[in-house]
Amino acid sequence: MMVDAVDREAEFEEITDALVLTRSDDFNAMVAAELRGTLGHGHVYRVAPHPDDPHLLPPSIEPGILGSEALTFEELDRRFAAGARFVSRDPVDGEGTTDVVLFTVTPDGRLRAAADGNAGLVARGERLIVLSS
After folding, report:
1. What is d(CA 124, CA 65) in angstroms, rounded to the nearest whole number?
2. Looking at the DSSP assignment, which residues form a beta bridge with residue 129?
3. What is the chain's mean pLDDT, rounded?
4. Contact between 102 and 67 (Cβ < 8 Å)
5. 113 three-state secondary structure
6. What is the DSSP letter of 116?
7. Residue 120 falls in which region: left (phi positive, over 0), alpha (psi -120 to 50) or beta
8. pLDDT value at position 26?
9. Is 102:129 a contact under the CB 8 Å cutoff?
10. pTM score of the predicted model
11. What strand order describes the sheet that includes 127-132?
12. How many CB atoms within 10 Å of residue 44?
């Protein structure tokens, strides 16, 4: 992220969206803000900051938290350690589960992120990518 703008623009030529999923909430916020300038709002998502950790940067009020405020790096780490995995499923298959919806996949293969606690409406023929415990 610390290269000059011309080099970065060339590197991002084919990239349309980004996920920022590091352990550092401050790094995630800084990189997400920088990437929004290149990729645009609604195209950059990050894990939620841990609510108890001190932050060098003020908390971002911009949307783009993948899943929900409860999905911090620590929560992802805990779930993976307990055997969670990413799976693709039909919307009705997970009713009553603790699955965390991350993306909707349209019939033509496009991804739509479930951000800020909102999975959105799922249309017929769409599938979900979830973090399944």
Report:
1. 25
2. 88, 103
3. 83
4. yes
5. strand
6. T
7. left
8. 86
9. yes
10. 0.78
11. 85-89, 127-132, 100-105, 111-113
12. 25
Backbone φ and ψ for 73, nearest 5 degrees, come out as -60, -40
In DSSP terms, which residues pair with 101 in a beta bridge? 130
Which pairing describes strands 44-46 and 18-20: parallel, antiparallel, or unpaired?
A: parallel
Domain chopping of the chain, boundaries:
5-132
The residue type found at 58 is: P
Q: What is the pLDDT of residues 18-76, one digit of tens each?
A: 999 999 988 888 889 888 888 888 899 999 888 887 666 555 566 789 988 889 999 99
| Helix count and strand count (H, E) for the chain | 3, 6
* Identity of residue 81: A
Hey, what long-range contacts does 34-42 have (CB within 8 A, 24 or more apart)?
Answer: 34/1, 36/62, 36/64, 38/8, 38/9, 38/12, 39/12, 39/15
Give every CB contact of residue 15 below 8 A, 6+ residues apart in sequence.
39
Cβ atoms of 53 and 28 within 8 Å: the answer is no
**What type of residue is 19?**
L
Q: What's the burial of 121, exposed, middle or buried (CB within 10 Å: 0-12/13-18/19+)?
A: exposed
Number of Cβ within 10 Å of residue 46's Cβ equals 26
